[in-house]
Specification:
Number of strands: 13
Mean pLDDT: 97
Distance between the termini: 26 Å
Oligomer: single chain
Bound molecules: acetyl coenzyme *A
Radius of gyration: 18 Å
CATH superfamily of the largest domain: Thiolase/Chalcone synthase
CATH topology of the largest domain: Peroxisomal Thiolase, Chain A, domain 1
Order of helices and strands: EEHHEHEHEHEEEEEHEHHHEE
Amino acid sequence: MSATISSIGIYHPEKEIRNSFFEAYLDTSDQWIRERTGIEKRFFSSDNEYTSDLCVKAVQALVKNHNTKISDIDFIIVATSTPDQIVPSVASQVQTRLNISGAGCMDISAACAGFVYGIIMAKGLIAAQTHRKILVIGAETLSKVTDFSDRNSCILFGDGAGAVIVEASPENHILNILTDTDGSYGKDLYLSHQAAPINGEIIIPDNKLHQNGRVVFKWAVSTLVTKIHELAKKNNMSLSDIDFLIPHSANIRILEAVCKELAIPIDKCIESIRNYGNTSAASIPIAWYSGIASGKIKNGDNLLLIGFGGGLTCAGICLKNNIVL
Ligand code: ACO
């Protein structure tokens, strides 16, 4: 059975954090943050606002945007690195709060690649004809796991959520996929809640996100360049057949370097880093929504979505945009 995606909704918390927030207590500057990352602002959840709250609001926005019903959804996938709890899953909290009875539920742990993994899982369930209408959400409250004393990382992250519905359809709009991981980089990006070793090394568990920024940056650029070529080839497309790239928004300089290597103009790349920071699993749906809302992405456009992050892992998918707002 073939599948399509024709609805989307996003949500960000109310609290807007500009770069001046960090200037006030850290040795950093608005200029450094803009020039080295592209970030102008991001949003932080309030103390009593959690990832499931953001998910519910993103789905409510989806319902409003498309005047659609969700009671017939038969599976819910939430991609997140910041679940409210490890058990129960965020997806099951979304199920009960939105009263979607009888749906299967699970969370995916694939960091910033999680949303694309979610679409890949949904495509597979629909192809297997076991499910027909699947809610896929990428959502994070990274501000709750940020080390605000680490200037290398704390300026990067933001909170947000994006939801889409993947459903069975006579026409196939979700094309070929790609997945890849190099677990030997595990310690270069981690969030630890217990003292289990990563790649044989003991970690001090502090429930904060740690990364080796330079290593991740270099890996991201070379992996994205190779995998975008590979994925286009798998879909019998050349890069010029792809109307827009939507990579995970981790740093504007990663996207600029990738576009330069691929010899494609940067305006072919849809990002969410400038206005939302790095929202990990939420960054791709937020960018996708923004691209449609601004009129850049049109119905029928060929999109290449590619996520990368902690693992280190990477997942990509080509699809025809079928979302109209
Ligand atoms: N303000 C001012 N100076 C800073 C700041 C800051 N906030 N942060 C670092 N610096 C300094 C460093 O101390 C260093 O100074 P030095 O030269 O005196 O030692 C200098 O700036 C350059 O440091 P770099 O680490 O080389 O800075 P870089 O240009 O690489 O930018 C960054 C750092 C933004 C972290 C970048 O490496 C990056 O974006 N990496 C990739 C992140 C990523 O993709 N993460 C994956 C997803 S995250 C997830 O999965 C949730």
